[in-house]
Amino acid sequence: MNQPPVIEIKNVSYRYDRDNVLENIQLSVPKGAFLGLVGPNGSGKSTLLKLILGLLKVKEGEVFLFGTPQKSFKNWDRIGFVSQKANSFNTGFPATVYEVVASGLTKKLGLFRRPGSKEKQAIKAAVEAVGMEAFLTRNIGELSGGQQQRIFIARAIVSKPDILILDEPTVGVDSKNVESFYNMLAYLNQQMGITLLLVTHDIGIISDKVTHVACLNKYLHFHGSMQQFETLDEEDLSDLYGHGIHLLDHHHEHQGADV
Q1: Spatial distance between the Cα atoms of 236 and 126, rounded to a whole number of angstroms
Q2: Are 125 and 159 in contact (CB under 8 A)?
Q3: According to the model, what pLDDT value does residue 253 have?
Q4: Which stretches in the chain have pLDDT values below 70?
């Protein structure tokens, strides 16, 4: 029996007051996919994420999570989320990397139960997965923006979700370290088996890592495999999409880790 999509969106539309932000969106994210969701500012990407995560109420259409209607979905620990504003916090906040990642287990442990040996191992494994094991005892405020973002990803995956949703995760990541950051995401997808939904402005730099692409600008203008996306003519797609898209960039330089 085939597994249902991790996320399935059927005929979803959404409006703020009288302004339609999304129109008749139909989108499916299969298990194991690495989906790049691309669109200009104001294209409805953040609204779509909020609808998926239940932060906004679906009024037109349906959203299914792991085959279950979202309105009756209870297993939210199967979904990890890192927002664009994840690293917008007081850099003087007195918490170590270990403590920040451990906070991702609060829902499972409760507020007052301390991590046991099993949880400590999960924290260590999550930090290692994002390449930050050398910083386990470092204060979070001492890290660079890119390093902090890796830690917030570790916090999101410490509870071992099936899907990780990332909203513009390279905000605050130094440009020379973006490549190694995306290599880390590819590792989470390919080696750890985590389905990824990544919101990005430029699909080009990750064209060799994503498996699927969705182009959103109020309407879903394209949704398919990366192989299908690569066959599209850039000018034709831009005309359809109403916004320029950088399709491919396989010649970027590979940089070292953001440490």
Answers
A1: 42
A2: no
A3: 40
A4: 1, 85-92, 108-113, 115, 234-259
The C-alpha torsion from 108 through 171 and 191 to 37, rounded to 10°, is: 100
8 Å CB contact between 167 and 3: no
- Residues 212/33, Cβ–Cβ less than 8 Å: yes
Q: How far apart are CA 156 and CA 142, in angstroms?
A: 20
Provide the pLDDT for residue 76.
92
What would the 3-class secondary structure string for 60-90 be? EEEEEECCEEHHHCCCHHHEEEECCCCCCCC
- Tokens 């410490």, located at residue: 158
Number of domains in the chain: 1
Closest CA to 133 of 119, 116, 147: 147
List residues bridging with 80 in a β-sheet: 164
- What is the reported pTM? 0.86
152 in a structural domain: yes
In-domain check, residue 249: no
Q: Which of 200, 150, 196 is nearest to 173 (CA)?
A: 150
Which pLDDT belongs to residue 259?
Answer: 33
On whether residue 2 sits in a domain, the answer given is: no
Residue 253 lies in a domain: no
pLDDT score at 5 = 95
**Centroid of chain to Cα 198:** 4
**Residue numbers of the domain that contains 155:** 7-241
Give me the CATH number covering residue 195. Answer: 3.40.50.300
61 within 8 A of 6, measured Cβ to Cβ: no
